[in-house]
Fold this sequence. Notes:
Elements: E1 11-15, H1 22-33, E2 36-39, H2 40-53, H3 61-70, E3 73-76, E4 79-82, E5 85-86, H4 94-104, H5 107-120, E6 126-130, H6 133-137, E7 143-148, H7 151-159, H8 172-188, E8 201-204, H9 210-227
Parallel strand pairs: 1-6, 1-7, 2-6, 7-8
Antiparallel strand pairs: 3-4, 4-5
Helix pairs in contact: 1-9, 2-4, 3-5, 4-8, 7-8
Amino acid sequence: MLHWQVVKRLIIAIDGPSGAGKGTLAHAVARRLEYRHVDTGAMYRAVAWKALQDGVGLDDEPAVAALASAAAFAQEDGVIRIDGHDVTRAIRTPDMDKAAARVAKLPGVRAILVERQRALAQDGGVVMEGRDIGTVVFPAADVKVYLDASPDERARRRAGDTAHSGGQQGTVAVVATDLIERDRTDSTRAVAPLTMAPDAVYVDTTGIPIDDVVERVMALVKERVVGSR
């Protein structure tokens, strides 16, 4: 058994599309390693939420970037806060999915949040999830995983996740349409598009229990630690 506290504290990057299971995996791995879990998507969602609350247009790049630069973010025990506001539930709705995608396309906002994300992991010991962690935020991450699942499975998971549907289960067909649009937006945006890093390990979670996926990633972490000794 590895003694995590006496080895190098790693940066673990988990990327992938919506509904692939990034959040569940990242949280579980971080808990096993006693690492910090950072959901970068929640940061973009929080910025979009704050912009809407403050009456800032989501396409007003300078204003949204200024908001992102000044904002105080906090993530702890699954609770997401921006400027002291608990937005954990508020940012997990279909409307906020769309709002976050608009904010994430703004180069100025991405530059600010990427800098802040790097600062969160400057001492290592972090499991960071998103869409550009292994390609842009931490291209030299110690472990890179690209998590995926079939479109049907991703749609079923998201449709059954009331946290992403305003407290009500959505229909698979409607959710599938939304996911297709989000995938298109994420993979074709000019800045930091969703793509798999060349050195990432591809993990398809279709039909696989989360515990098995966690063990797969833990094995990758162990390989990295042993290999660096």
